[in-house]
UniProtKB/TrEMBL annotation:
Name of the top EC class for this enzyme: transferase
Protein family membership: Belongs to the methyltransferase superfamily. L-isoaspartyl/D-aspartyl protein methyltransferase family.
Domain of life, source organism: Bacteria
BP-aspect Gene Ontology terms: methylation
GO cellular component, one term: cytoplasm
Chief localisation class: cytoplasm
Record key words, sorted: Cytoplasm, Methyltransferase, S-adenosyl-L-methionine, Transferase
Tagged with keyword Cell inner membrane: no
Full protein name: Protein-L-isoaspartate O-methyltransferase
Organism of derivation: Couchioplanes caeruleus
Length: 375
């Protein structure tokens, strides 16, 4: 191993995220083989790393504990400047190690990875389980082709197919484990059907209000799957489940309401925000500075609902609220926060999901303790 590679492996081990059973795979799969000659560091102001201009800097970035963007705008943007939206990346080593650890994989298992990306994760799986036991599928043919090249450079012969990961990879099913390197808000039925009874699906779960959480579901004999949220995980959404980017128009003549609830208490606390994000689906939030002061903005593009709450130190405990659309987003958030406090402010790892033919049910502590659908 080159020194940069050795340092990364040792750091992951020292931090307790890389179990001993995965260490050999990380040692035998160099990450730099999966980094394009030109890419972008997310954690450094989206700075371009260019191998031809600064090979030492490029190599250092390759072995940093940072995610690296490898594609913008589904491949339509290829300049040195970042595009509008990152659409493929090389994941942060820490979260890669955590997801492999939390997949509870044992030697000899057959695994399907949804979202090949650079191919690094598939190579790690192949190094641990043997290439014949690992399958990976990627919706973007150009990304898949680069991944195949990267896998070949690393000496791995994992089967890397092109297709919509929402459909799984039925040709080689069933699988002991299904591992997604993209986020979903709805677990595709095919994933459950193609995972063995007793097997696990591990996937990032998209929460617009605060990025996302990592969910581990165990598949049951009756075709259902259930499991808990086990970690935070920020991943790009599955392309077939991408949220709308349409602007939600604000009704300028919407009536002004008042609330005594400071939105900063709800939306700036990670524990509260994670749980509110689980309960109030498809709600995006950001802060704007206007002539009226600091405003918390809430949007649901799918329904056209919106809310604004003025939140700064000049409002003296009373905050102006405006809401529009079929959903009352601010009211939903306040109700969710009150319910969460009434349950003793549980952390997100106490929540879980059951997925069946009728959809999904969110629960607290046990599958039978279902969270009310309308709070």
């Amino acid at each position: 191993m080159i020194p940069e590679h050795a340092r990364l492996v040792q750091t992951l081990s020292d931090e307790g995220v890389l179990p001993n059973e995965w260490r050999s795979a990380f040692e035998n799969v160099p990450r730099h083989l999966f980094v394009p000659d030109q890419a972008w560091l997310i954690g450094n102001g989206r700075t371009c790393i260019d191998r031809s201009a600064d090979e030492a800097g490029w190599l250092a970035a390759a072995y940093s504990d940072e995610p690296i963007i490898t594609q913008w705008d589904d491949g339509s943007s290829s300049s040195e400047k970042p595009g509008a939206a990152a659409t493929s990346s090389l994941s942060m080593p820490t979260i890669v190690a955590i997801m492999l650890r939390e997949s509870l994989i044992s030697d000899g298992m057959k695994v399907l990875e949804i979202g090949t990306g650079s191919g690094w994760n598939a190579a790690l799986l192949g190094a641990r389980l043997g290439d014949d036991n690992v399958y990976t599928i990627e919706v973007d043919s150009a990304v898949a082709e680069r991944a195949r090249d990267n896998l070949a450079k690393s000496g791995r012969k994992v089967v890397a197919a092109v297709g919509d990961g929402a459909n799984g990879f039925p040709e080689h099913a069933p699988y002991d484990r299904m591992l997604a390197t993209l986020s979903v808000s709805t677990v595709p039925r095919a994933w459950i059907e193609q995972t063995k009874s007793g097997g696990y699906i591990v996937t990032p779960w998209r929460i617009p209000l605060l990025n996302g959480l990592l969910l581990r579901l165990q598949v049951n004999n009756d075709g259902t799957a259930a499991g808990r949220f086990i970690n935070t995980a920020v991943f790009m959404p599955m392309r077939s489940q991408r949220p709308s980017t349409d602007d939600v128009p604000i009704e300028l003549d919407a009536p002004v309401e008042e609330t005594s609830t400071d939105p900063r208490d709800l939306l700036n606390d990670d524990h509260a925000q994670f749980v509110i994000g689980l309960l109030v689906q498809e709600c995006y939030e950001w802060t704007e500075t206007t002539d009226q002061g600091t405003v918390q903005r809430l949007d649901d593009p799918s329904s056209g609902s919106w809310a604004t709450v003025t939140a700064d130190d000049t409002t003296s405990g009373r905050y102006e609220v405006r809401q529009g659309g079929p959903r009352r987003l601010w009211d939903e958030i306040v109700s969710a926060h009150e319910w969460w406090q009434g349950q003793g402010s549980p952390v997100f790892t106490r929540f879980g999901v059951t997925v069946d033919q009728d959809g999904r049910r969110l629960w607290l502590d046990e599958p039978g303790n279902v969270v009310p659908p309308a709070l």
